[in-house]
Amino acid sequence: MQHWGQFKRPDNIEKVIAAINEMDIKPIKIMEICGTHTMSIAKSGIKSLIKDKVKLISGPGCPVCVTPADRMDKILELARKSNVIIATYGDMLKVPGTKYGESLERLKAMGSSVEIVYSVMDAIELAKNNPEKEVVFLGIGFETTTPASAIAMEAATGENIDNFSIFSMHKLCEPILRALIGMEDFKIDGLICPGHVSIILGEKGFEFLKAEFGIPSVIAGFEGGDIVTAIYKLAEMARDHKSEYVNEYKRIVTYEGNEIAWNMVKRYFEPADDLWRGIGMIPQSGLKIRDEYSKFDAVKKFNIELRQDEAATTCKCGEIIKGKQEPRECPLFGKTCTPENPVGPCMVSSEGACAAYYKYESI
Q1: pTM to 2 decimal places
Q2: How far is CA 356 from CA 213, 232, 300, 326, 330, in A?
Q3: CA 318 to mean position of chain CA atoms
Q4: Which segments of the chain belong to CATH 3.40.50.11740?
Q5: What pLDDT does 363 receive?
Q6: Which sign, positive or negative, has the C-alpha torsion 9, 15, 20, 23?
Q7: CATH code for the part of the protein at 1-313
């Protein structure tokens, strides 16, 4: 009998994979809830190595993928304003709105001021160098990227920069996990928790998965060995009918997490109900800028009205990020929807399930 203790280090991948395949278990379903995990799994071919024992499912871990089309419509409207510079990470350039073919990339080609930045602090510099323009930074991401947005607001406050604002699409992991678990057809045997988010929240950030729901869960890093080790542990739990919560990423993730960064987030943001593409409105799942810092809130600065529901679409991104369908089951996949001409955000993002499947698994 092989034991977990033999595989604590992710440097014995072949033996771990062999142990998974030799394990006496019924096929189990494991969901990863991080886009980086999704891409790493696809790139390394892990699914094909354990397909008879474990089915890996991509959850709502890609922040671009869960961005509603309505939010993109509002961003595109801002980009058309002559006095606005949109500052964004590259993944947002091709995200379509409700109208197929409309994107920031297209508007940029037509003359709109859209700038790719590598840090929100680059957006601060844009604001300083263009005092006659309004610079709007697209705040996208989960708990990992939100601290940088908070730091940017603190920097703008200290330098009296008034022509900078954030269109906050930052989201929280715990509420969406609770929403998924609460769905009647949620049938997952284990969860691979996101390493990046756990760096901020710490081990304690996902303790509720075991304490309240009894769902086997492992915090994992992003190397192939990290992920395979996490899968082994979850398979072992299934075999032994146990529910445990394990931090496999101890070399980076502490119990408390980065409290300084998270306290900075809480200073400038507060939870709010938010819309998730293909899932709907999830209570207290987004982060909005606090009223006392509303001058940095692009939604308020430009009097933007946000939809509370989604328009119907043939794109199946919503079903894919809920783990109900695989990319190949979408009628648009590889036909109307490709990385060159994406219809949905799961094909746009470099960490989207459809993009990963198209690049590494659809051959």
Answers
A1: 0.90
A2: 30, 23, 36, 11, 14
A3: 13
A4: 1-313
A5: 52
A6: negative
A7: 3.40.50.11740
